[in-house]
Batch of 2 targets.
Target 1
Amino acid sequence: MQHSVHKTRGGLIRVGVSLDANGRIDDIVITGDFFIYPEESVEALEKVLVGIGADGGELLRVIKGFYENIEAPGIGPEDMVKAIKKAL
Amino acid sequence: MRYIDLGFISLPRLHATEEAIAKYGVPTLMLWVARPATVSLGYFQSVSEDVDLEEAKRLGLAITRRPSGGGAALFDEKELYYSIVASWDSGVLPRSPRPCFKKAANGIIFALNSFGIDAKFAGKNDVQVNGKKISGNAQTNKNEAKIQHGTFLVDFDIEAAARVLKVPIEKVVDKGIGAKTMPGMIEERVTTLDRELGRKVPMEEAKEALKKGFEKALDVELIDGGLTREEERMREKFTAKYEDPEWIYKR
């Protein structure tokens, strides 16, 4: 697993991520001292991200879709993408 | 609004109490003190990344995970803590996170004002006195009820907190902290009621001030009460959940 630490207005995001042979996310863990409501949605996001290509627009598109049902003060979809890409 | 003085309570039992009350949504303020001393991790934090487990063991500290987000903190008998639980439709707390943090922070600010201390809401979830943190807060929602909780630093164990909490360098590099050591760094960023007043404030005095502060901030009259039988039953069930290592060590 490759790791990153990304600082946002809403807190620190740490990502641990591993890719499969095709450059798609194989496993991902998002941790940190932020607030996201509802909390369980982060586990759901981690599941949804498996199989998604780590480069290109798909990642941002999936994360933006996920943002429709959550509140994440100080953490935009772009921050999430940045945190993931930083780990790679 | 119901008021319950929980006295000393363990963190898993406290969170179970909050969730049991949230199940029925009766607006309640609880004041409590943490026993045993415990490292409380935010919902999304990593046990291995955010806590020095060997130091925690050496200091005899328990490890727990909150149902709410935010950063790791050391909870012990030097500090006073509050929890407010209220159904969304009770109107006691705003549904939206930031207004909710602000309204609850007012309870702490009014309590500090009653001691002649000027304080203000700062950042996303803190109360500060002269730029130093004196209260950290967090919130979550369960069963269409808000759970809002936080610390009121009457006193603070800087040494133990510095030893057990792993503060990532990214968090502090641009905050202009001059001191090199962890205890020094915390000391520059955190203050306590005792330090501001230059005397040891008895816990009962702090409790009374905080209770009055919340009465004013929430515009309610607090009436002493206890848990209902149903709440007590649910609390037992939820305690097992929060004590489960699967929950605590899940990330």
Note: Chain B touches chain A through 26 residues (CB under 8 Å).
Target 2
Amino acid sequence: MATRFEFLLCGGDEGYLRSVAEEAMDEVERIEEQISLFIPTSDISRINRRAADEAVKVDVELFELLLLAQRINRETDGAFDITVAPILDGWGRRSGEQRKQQTVIGMDNVLLDEAARTVRFKRRGVAIDLGGIGKGYAIEMAAEIVAEHGVESALLHAGTSTVQALGSPPDGKAWKVGIVNPLSSSGQRERAAVVCLKDEALSVSSPFGRRFKVGAGDFGHIVNPRSGMSADGVICAVAVSASATRVDALSTAFCVMGEERTAEYCSAHREVGALLLLPGQRRVRLAKFGEIHVEEPCGE
Amino acid sequence: MERVNRRAFLRKSAAVAFSIASVGRAARGGESSRGVVRCGVIGTGTQGRVLLSQLSKMEGVEIAALCDIYPPHLKKGLKIAGGNAKTFTDYRRVIEEDLEAIIIATPPNLHAQMVLDALQAGKHVFCESPLALTVEDCKKVAAAARTAKTVFQVGHQRRSSPLYRHSLSFVKAGLIGDLQQVRAQWHINSSWRKPVRDRRYEKLLNWRLYRESSGGLMGEFGSHQLDIGNWFLGATPVSVMGVGGINRWKDGREVYDNVQLIFNYPNGVRMIYSAMLNSSFEGNYEMFIGTAGTILLMGGRKGLLFKEPDAAAFGWEMYAKKEKLGEAEGILLDANATKLEKKTDTAVVKAGEERADFYREMEDFLHAIREGKDVPCNAEPALKAAVACIRANECMEKGQQIQFAEQDFKV
């Protein structure tokens, strides 16, 4: 996942907390070995190599994660899609093939056989990348271990983009997570809002986080799976719910879905809240939907 | 005592290979009545679940029984197995089940009796490393495995690694000249402590920290790397000296958190070994230093060959990928792509698809059961590695060099 994970555990004996954190960190490493696109021996690498030729059997855990990715894909009307890897790969290494790549994008190219617990691609060229959901899944599984060992106050994050809060901090009612405006100059790191979390997860995505230059163009790394083009309408999307896995996927999807569809999603899924940073006339404009507790909104 | 120069090494390797093949024939599977191998896993802690996960990805395997005395581990194991397995807390009940294969991933002090009972019941057995915690137990297991009609494999997963096999073929072919030294280390930054709230479970869950149930760093890490050293050198050590201590984790544990040892092999060749829980710098690796070059194998993921300036050029060298390590440039050892020179009589090493070594070792176990293939690591090399580690612990405890007796490594 090529991401830095940090866990903050509070209360009780330091040695005990460290042992809990180590077990949680081992869990992250285990999941990375299984789903990383960058590890040739991972199950995802194997699926991408073979699933166009044959059905690839996977373990229960990965199959359930793929089913969840498929479900979120349907719920978001295709805005979250684990098959966008070929487009990202194209932007990273070669341009001008997006039209051809579009035929291999879409979850309908991925056949999940529940009885056989196998994955099969409909056509050659399809590839899956759990980069948009894997960090959240690893954080959620790590948080499960932390909770299982009786730690009631903790904050776990992956690369500062996906956070899971357990309970509240020892000196406050909720964990406060600052949302930085990605368009602010790197020296200033202007805070656009603070989101309060208690037994909730938060994820933030922005097309301005990582960008590619292709010819004269400048593209964000979040792709609209339908058009194959960079989704640049939202400056930054924040998703909040109980599950880090789900919010990791949804924050990416909200960038693609934009204001109206994000609002619709949150009203249909009451357990999910969202905060969008949108282009305003002078500063960013904030749009808040569903269950999300925002302090200090600093936008227009 | 035999010299470990290249010529002698090749002779020795051939002898070892022959003896493995002979035992392999005696302990071979070759049939599975139903086509599906019904497996039971005893011990569903961290390592047991790693193996379970591999098995659950394979066709023709049914995980039919799970056993653990700690209910949360059993529950996690059941989730991986897919929910249809029977669960037990007494391993003897698992052995009584209608199963072809038993996988043992318990603390090592429990290995010997479980293996003996499972082999006695006519099961194919895979047992995690180290083989056992005493020389006597290692020998009992090795003797039983030798006479068993079923497959017995020990979990030295690097034996299933194409990278390691490929690198060994380089060494055997003399491409790094005469082996002078092996260096190996396994350094991590970890307390090795499992979280335990109820003190009744302390020794059960933190078995790695107590001498009655653990060989410490030598048992958990050293046994794997000593096996690799023995395998590549085609020899066993003649003596060992070293020190160990608890420098960081003074929390009531009995096993060292750092060890440094020198294993002397025939002909003055040495294996210099270090393991610790106190720093992760440089992680884990094995390095084979020869007169013409050095092979560095880093945690099973990557291998590099560094040639001496006066070593002969290889025909394929110009096509090979290179990678810098500090000032030195190494040739990337790729078991899938590299072509050896014809004179080595191994034209192309085909490793097949990249898979995790834990997957491969389970696959090798199943191939041995179904097709009667030799296992990558049977009881005898596992005994040699385990005994070397047991003696190494004794040497550190006594603070004096220990000579290995010829009988130490014999079944």
Note: The CA atoms of residues 44 and 76 of chain B lie 8 Å apart.
